[in-house]
Amino acid sequence: MSNKSLESLKFRFFCRRDESLRRTLDLLNSFDSFSASFEGETLKIGRK
Question: What's the predicted TM-score (pTM) here?
Fold first, then answer.
């Protein structure tokens, strides 16, 4: 993780196992504190 300020974030996130990865990514991006995206097979988390 390149942004040290993200290391202190704590949140709880629940999703259904049958949700698509796209839907799960959209749900993660509904948080105001960070953005989430895939780069290849890696999930990247960054500040909005």
Answer: 0.64
- Which DSSP symbol is given to 30? T
Give the whole-angstrom CA distance, residue 17 versus residue 4: 30
pLDDT digits (tens, 9 = 90+) for 21-46: 899 899 889 988 889 999 998 988 88
| Phi, psi for residue 7 in degrees, rounded to 5 | -65, -25
Under 8 Å between Cβ of 35 and 15: no
| Listed residue (31, 25, 16, 23) closest to 44, CA to CA | 25
